[in-house]
Design goal:
It comes from Bariatricus massiliensis. This is Type II secretion system protein. The protein is α+β, with helices and mostly antiparallel strands. It is 47% helix and 26% strand. The chain has a 5-stranded antiparallel beta sheet with strand order 1-2-3-4-5, with helices on one face. The longest helix is centred in the N-terminal third of the chain and has 62 residues. The mean pLDDT is 88.
Length: 148
Amino acid sequence: MSKQSSRRSSLFLLELIAAIFFFSLASAVCVRFFVKSHTISQDTKNLDMAVNQASTFAELFRSGDDLFPLLEKEYSAGKLSPDKTTYTIYYDKNWELCPVADAVFSLTIEQTTDGHISSGSFVVEEIKGNKEIYNLEAQKYIQEEGWN
């Protein structure tokens, strides 16, 4: 009787171990899917915010005379390059304006003029990985003085 009981308990223990292994494997796969889903969601949020920020500044560029004086006035935490052709604005992980030391993302605005055409380049990057998230180009025609 003891031998029969021992075999049954061994078989039950083996089945229990197999079931635990199966559920552990299934839960590991599910956790991996949840982590990947979170990563995709975060990347999508960052892309959406990058598109919004670049589009906003592109519209400001296209609507006004000179963008950099406005940026220096309104976004004092940003940085104007010495040659005055590039302005960089910094954002933290929640896409709030911040100083360079706390920055996770940057929006670099480069403006060039060739005759009557002014071109603007708006590049949003993730600073840590130096990874470009979004890039937008815009142009505008500069009307000559005295024309109506």
